[in-house]
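Sample pair:
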Amino acid sequence: MQFSTALTLGLSLIAGTQALPSEERGIKSVHFTFHGGPASYELYVPTDGTWVATNNQISVSIIDVDTAHYDALSLCTFKTPGPQTLVGGVTSEGVKTITVGPPQPVTSVSCRAH
């Protein structure tokens, strides 16, 4: 009887852990690749709300979200010099992308866990 109760409790804990979105399972930082024409650069941003300066002035048109199972479009803020529209997508290879319109430098990024 005790084994059955312990087994049920253990399986419940495992199932509960697997049901949580990945943002709540400990993603500590998000990896981005910013593309502007033939140029690109990479940036890691913690998910603690800290603003991270990009220190790059290329005019960004596409941002690859290289962290699996993370919704950067809704959980991150991208500062640019002017107004921008961000549109999410997925490449044929399965990479999540954010299109920046009109293309412009991204000056800093902040992300949160959930």
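The first helix runs from residue 2 to 19.
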